[in-house]
Amino acid sequence: MDKKELNKDFILDLIVEIEQRLSQINHLKNINLEDFLKDDIRKDALKYRLLSLIEGLLSLCNHIISRTDVSPPSTYADCFRKLSKLGISSDTLVEKIVKMILFRNILVHQYWVIDDEKIYEITQIDHSFVNEFLKDIEQLLVK
Known about the structure:
Layout: H1 8-28, H2 33-38, H3 40-66, H4 76-85, H5 91-109, H6 116-124, H7 128-142
């Protein structure tokens, strides 16, 4: 995997940023659906935090893949699947991340049609898989 050396400081900064976004999402999600749907500021905040979290994951993946000898990814989802093929993270974990990445396109390109109940559902799921993925990346740094 030594095409170019990984920028460990960059990766660690991204990990901290992603962890902060997860914490912010966890803080903002503690509300019932009815109150959530009435709170435009909270809805916007959660959308932004989700997008920031996803963008952080994408930056992380792109940085790592750009330092390998594998071909560049054709899609955002492909970037994470290449991490799995390189043995950096498991297929199961990567597919959970890919679902988040696919949601990014809705946030970015179709923001006017986003179902706020869907945002609520997404924020209510257990995001511990993101922490597991980050641990896989941290293990890469100690190799």
